Amino acid sequence: MDTIEKLRKLKDIIKDLESVVVAFSGGVDSSLVAKVCYDVLGDKALAITARSETYPAYEYEEARKIAKEIGISHMTIDTSELGIKGFAENPPNRCYFCKSELFGKLKEIAREKGYKNVADGANLDDAGEYRPGLDAAKELQVRSPLRESGLRKVDIREISKYLKLPNWDKPSYACMSSRFPYGQSITEEKLTIVAAAENYLRSIGLKQFRVRHHDTIARIEVLPKDIPLLLQDGKRKELVKKFKEIGYKYVTIDLEGYRSGSMNEVLTLQEKKKG
């Protein structure tokens, strides 16, 4: 199936929604959903971004810019994941609590404003990963046009590039809560430390990375090709100095490199099923 055919299938699915609220983070996936929803449904599509402690300010600003460029109506709501019962304790199914709260709010707004559906940016690749938030979407009957169209991440980037979306090649991003080992409590102070550390990595030109927070230890994940960059003597010393100023006592580089969902690697199959 070529790009135009994939896009046509996505448009057909979105047309059936009739009117929709899009859970919009400004990432590649939700941007494509927002773009096609606006192209197909016009003013019957509304993008909503949830601003919270786990959503960095720079991501929010990017989401605003993308929504403006697309032309879709855009609304911001303020949420607090840390205030959700069970979330801050950081259990393996943490994502379920967050998405359940978010989708519940979006469904309520959709009802109030007369939109028939709520849609997210989940894609076919997500089904092969540990994502408890998908259970919340299913329970609340949230539609996933990308997944329903059989689109994987590579397809989404391909279509986004074809549609000239400016963030078609944006690195994958995940909620800041994913930086903490399960069972380690999440606080606003810890989130601030991680955000500062990741902002520094961004400032030196890195694009795909994570800073995993192990109490006083920072475990830095970058693409394998970028590891030598961090080991250059001047860069290494400056990185260690900066991270210690931010609040870490020890600074480490994960030799496996960046990988999505690395905190899930310690979970047993039974723990995932419980989630």
Write the layout of secondary structure elements.
Layout: H1 3-15, E1 20-23, H2 28-41, E2 45-51, H3 57-70, E3 73-78, H4 94-113, E4 117-119, H5 133-139, H6 145-148, H7 153-162, H8 188-203, E5 209-214, E6 217-222, H9 227-231, H10 233-246, E7 250-253, H11 269-274
Parallel strand pairs: 1-2, 1-4, 2-3, 6-7
Antiparallel strand pairs: 5-6
CATH topology of the largest domain: Rossmann fold
Q: Which H/E pattern describes the elements?
A: HEHEHEHEHHHHEEHHEH
Total helix count? 11
What topology, given as strand order, has the largest sheet?
3-2-1-4
Q: CATH H-level name of the largest domain... which superfamily?
A: HUPs
Helix-strand makeup class: alpha/beta
Number of strands: 7
Low-confidence stretches: 269-273
The main β sheet shows up as: 4 strands, parallel
Architecture overview:
The protein is of the alpha/beta class. It folds into two domains: 3-162, Rossmann fold, CATH 3.40.50.620; 176-265, Alpha-Beta Plaits, CATH 3.30.70. Helices cover 45% and strands 13% of the residues. The chain has helices at 3-15, 28-41, 57-70, 94-113, 133-139, 145-148, 153-162, 188-203, 227-231, 233-246, 269-274, and strands at residues 20-23, 45-51, 73-78, 117-119, 209-214, 217-222, 250-253. The strands form two sheets. A four-stranded parallel β-sheet has the order 3-2-1-4, sandwiched between helices. It has a three-stranded mixed β-sheet with strand order 5-6-7, with helices on one face. The radius of gyration is 19 Å and the shape is globular. Mean pLDDT is 92; it is low at 269-273.
